[in-house]
Amino acid sequence: MSLASRQVGLVAEYTGRFALRSGTGLVFVLASLVTGLLLAQLILGPVEFTQEGIEGADEGEAVEVILETARPVVSWIVGRASGDESVGERWTAYLLDDRPALLSGILLLTMFAWPFLVALGAGNPFSGDVGSRRIRYLLLRVPRTRLFFGRLAGTLAFVLATLVVIVAIVTLYLGFNIGIYGWGELLGWAAWGVLAMTLMTLPYVALFGWISSAVDTPVGSFTLCLAVVGGVPLVALLGGNAWEPLSWARYLSPWGVQHQLMHYDVLHVVGAAAACLGYTAAFVFLGHRHFSRRDL
């Protein structure tokens, strides 16, 4: 292993450990767990509190309860993502009829909220140390490029570990408590959900790294990250109603393609994955260029 890779690995390991011990990191973990479980409860609550209950109903009745619970959520999200009624109906049928419906609804809701949570967990890889000038002491031993990529890698690992824990808790709960799905299809769909959310997480971590490298205060970096995550779809939604071309603003961030990762058409999935990787490459390039050139 070369010196460069060892240094990047050490920086990534230290970043992940420090994130877990820091106040912001703990808040991110707790906020992510609470948000993920609350979103899951929105889907699971009506199922658990039906008069018959899943355990007391036969399989057909249980499936009907599940479909009635998950359909409004799934239809709304894929309808916004597809922009076409017929495509939205087919997409909804795929997620509810061909895949575990409850898990589909929970994953889509989590994907909707995840960028805002990632802004909390990945919004400050550089700004705090840049503002306090502590980063100067690190640069005596580690070149800027290795420090930049090491911190991004450590932040990404920390965020993805939290994601895996959330999906694992929900999946195990569905398997043991609801019991309507086979473990094979449940674990397979959960694994695909983790992979899809990993792909959508990559560009957000890169984007927030770029923002953090340009802002000197953690609060300012976090605020700007939230403004970008929420502002882009808001401008596309409200501006698109007034002037149609503004609806394309949603593609300024991964928000415009992230739900396509759960599409029934493999071409849409491949295109969305390629777009996420493209966003990641562009944001990493911009962040690294700015970090390498700025006065520290």
Q: Can you give a write-up of this model?
A:
The chain is mainly α. The protein has one domain (3-33, 107-293). 80% of the residues lie in helices and 0% in strands. It is built from eleven helices and no strands. Helix 2 packs parallel to helix 8 and helix 9 (183-214) runs parallel beside helix 11. The model has no long low-confidence stretch (mean pLDDT 85).
The description of the largest β-sheet is: none
Helix count from the secondary structure assignment: 11
**Radius of gyration over alpha carbons?**
21 Å
Which blocks of ≥5 consecutive residues have pLDDT under 50? none
Mean pLDDT: 85
How would you sum up the global shape?
globular
Q: Tell me the span between the first and last alpha carbons.
A: 29 Å
Topology:
Elements: H1 3-21, H2 23-48, H3 59-82, H4 85-98, H5 101-122, H6 127-132, H7 135-139, H8 144-178, H9 183-214, H10 218-242, H11 266-293
Brief overview:
This protein has eleven helices and no strands.
Which key features would you list for this structure?
globular; mainly alpha; 296 residues; 11 helices; 0% strand
